[in-house]
Amino acid sequence: MQNKFISFEGCDGSGKTTQVKKLVEYLHSLKQETIITREPGGCKEAEDIRHMLVTGDPEKWHSKTELLLMNASRHEHVKRTIVPALTDKKWVLCDRFYDSSLVYQGIAGSLDFTEAEYICKFASDNLEPDITILIDISAEVGLQRSNRATNKENRFEKKGIDYHNKVRNGYLQLAKTYSHRFITINGEQSQEDVFKDLLQALKDKDIV
Ligand code: TYD
Questions:
Q1: If you write DSSP's letter for every residue of 92-160 in order, what string do you get?
Q2: 83 pLDDT above the threshold of 60
Q3: What's the predicted TM-score (pTM) here?
Q4: CA distances from 8 to 25, 41, 135 (A)
Q5: Is residue 101 in contact with ligand 1, taking CB distance under 6 Å?
Q6: Looking at ligand 1, which residue's alpha carbon is closest to its atom 22?
Q7: How far is the CA of 192 from the centre of ligand 1 (A)?
Q8: Is 35 helix (H, G, I), strand (E, B) or coil?
Q9: Would the pLDDT of 143 be above 90?
Q10: In a 3-state reduction of DSSP, which class is residue 184?
Q11: Is 10 in the pocket of ligand 1 (CB under 6 A)?
């Protein structure tokens, strides 16, 4: 079995984090060394930047500033966490990666897509996930599920339904454009059924 870099994507409230945990358990049961990490964040330096991004007024940054901060944190994360783990032949399961920036800042934030993509690739030293698992749910269901009304890290949830509809449609668009690495799973079913579909899709592609 070959270690892989797998990113998980989806609207807020899509249940990605639960699926990341289920997949790491599965890989550990196969004795595969695996790390879980997340963006924005994933190392001390990037977590410091995360705090500025996920708290406070939803309009406090312009989309370009948001894109640059996300990618500043990403560069630290790639250099300090992801690349060393891949070099050590570990699996890397990443809760969000640059597709989040392409969708939230690029598409929903109305930036030029080609420019946004260039910046994401620059920040990642051209490291692309081997597989991207999109847990697809409607923006309405996601925002209802998102239980962070009392959490301070809710700056993006506060951006409203129109923004989140653009995020969902943006993801579906990316899944078509990058069909070589995207796996789209229906997230509007039980967590067990989502995982069953996800695992089957990975087996079909001979990943696990
Ligand atoms: P996260 O903590 O992963 O939230 P969730 O649990 O909903 O997945 O991410 C925080 C927010 O940051 C989330 O609303 C999406 C947003 N985000 C971007 O806008 N661009 C990015 O590049 C990343 C990585 C996240």
A1: EEEES-HHHIIIIIIITTT--HHHHHHHHHHHTTT---SEEEEEE--HHHHHHH---TT-S--TTGGG-
A2: yes
A3: 0.97
A4: 16, 14, 7
A5: yes
A6: 101
A7: 23
A8: strand
A9: yes
A10: strand
A11: no
